[in-house]
Amino acid sequence: MNSPIDATWRAFHQRSLDDPDGFWAEQARLVDWERDFDQICDASRPPFARWFVGGRINLCHNAVDRHAARRPDDAALIWVSTEVGQERVYSFAALKDEVEAMAAMLREGGVGVGDRVLIYMPMIPEAAFAMLACARIGAVHSVVFGGFASQALADRIDDAEPVMIVSADAGSRGGKVVPYKPLLDEAIRIASHQPSRVLMVDRGLSAFQPVQGRDLDYAALRARLLGTRVDCEWLPSDAISYTLYTSGTTGKPKGVQRDVGGYAVALAASMKHIYEGRAGETFFSTSDIGWVVGHSYIVYGPLIAGMATLMHEGTPVLPDAGIWWRLVERFKVTVMFSAPTAARVLKKHDIEHLKRHDLSSLRTLFLAGEPLDEPTARWIADALGKPIIDNYWQTETGWPILTLARGVAPAEAKFGSPGVPMYGYRIELLDERTGEVLTEPNQKGLLTIAGPLPPGCMQTVWRDDERFVRTYWSGVPGRQVYSTFDWALRDEDGYYFILGRSDDVINVAGHRLGSREIEECIAGHPAVAEVAVVGVADALKGQVATAFAVLKDPAGAATPEAALRLEGEILRRVDQLLGAVARPSRVRFVTLLPKTRSGKLLRRAIQAVCEHRDPGDLITLDDPSALQQIRDLVG
Ligand code: AMP
Q1: Where does the source fall among the domains of life (predicted)?
Q2: What pLDDT, in 10s, does the model give residues 509-525?
């Protein structure tokens, strides 16, 4: 058969499925173990899987100490802020010192093994120190994206119940100071759980009043504790490394929980086989530590591989659209990771911003987090003259499900496809209603993974095994398989194409938002009776959220001025409670929402109408005038 998929890759992939023990035992040698494991995978209690059972390991040792011992002066963390005009470079030795100082602060604050530490920080080195310090002492970090506001933060505080919170006075975005401390104080005020300590990094961007007896000053503690030795706490492989909240169908975000050993091995293997990052080189991911890409490929992955990680506080277009490429040139970046939206933003600027720099060090640009459209892929490939590799994965998996592993064998990219299933993933396309496996090419089905999930993937939902099983493993009749909640098809060559979510997740510029969370926030406005939030296709951001609200008193939006005023109020409410990242592009007022006769909101039909598509079979629609109102509004 004439296939664009290389035979070496086929054999590699097949072995990962036929002989997972042998395959993963080999990958496990990419990291250091204090005690070797006795069993590769315990899958005796499906769908739960425990990887490298009996092994003892530490993520911080693998990311920092082992490199500090061998190559202490090599760069480990390069921080550039084009927001505040500062730069710092930490060698592995210096990074170890900073992490140990932070670990000592956490210990003094009463943080022990298994305790949670919530990190609510902008893109500054101290955020990475905090994560690594948690890993060092066996604490569980829970990073909350800095774009989230007080209610979103309070919900996460109540779920994680942190002993300590690490935060900063402010971030900066597009040259504008974004204070964090007032949002954090408000979140703690409305949360039921109260952290005993808040460790504050004061960047001098936004004055704040420390809370007596609770807030600690990072600079003062650092002055005292730098030089303190804090040994790595060796943890069982299946101990919890972190939780990271992600949106789904309900209003309550899920704490995706990950282990230590499986994650370390999965990241080390991905750095070798997928990203081809080598010790001594520089990796540049433009994501944020608040997202899974930031965890896996700003902090842990590159460092585990012995690479320097470049952390950038800033946007791709300030001071101009050449900034990222100047950084690539200056720091000799070899591997870069970004999102399609960033490429679409750059596309609006002069291509010379990319072309005029010496990008000879750069081997590959990886893009992930949302669908990569063909015009954008072609534009950036032409502009850079480098291979563009799409990655498809999720917060839940921690590393790519579909891509091309060019570290294993040469592979041809196909525009519009993230690639082929990665090693360790047993991918099946299923008919959602019958559970039947779709074997023919080009059939649309639900993208699922047969258990056990490979190392690095989520262990469970934090403190809610039942929700883990119900949410991810119970959607298909007669089968217990993990649902990605994405539709996909596979072509004749075995390449997959992602066709959109099967649930109510909205993907704005690669940021994952839940319809329900935004709806609950808007429904809290006193004038609103009920509301539907849907994701609508957008040329720049992939999708934007749009809200349709029914008012308790329709007179509230009777005139265009009144409607505009109310829309502004509702949008401000979302900004204040959830954060600007969740703000819908519009709030439209209707007198009725499209629902089924049994009262289920037809979000998919609303979305279709907004995108001028056929809403499909509307046999269950209760009142057709509801959809007509939306059609009239969107034109
Ligand atoms: P997150 O958990 O925030 O990483 O979001 C994961 C979701 O983003 C996936 O379930 C997909 O719906 C979407 N997604 C991520 N990467 C890609 C990609 N390369 N192509 C298409 N969709 C993607």
Answers
A1: Bacteria
A2: 989 898 998 999 999 99
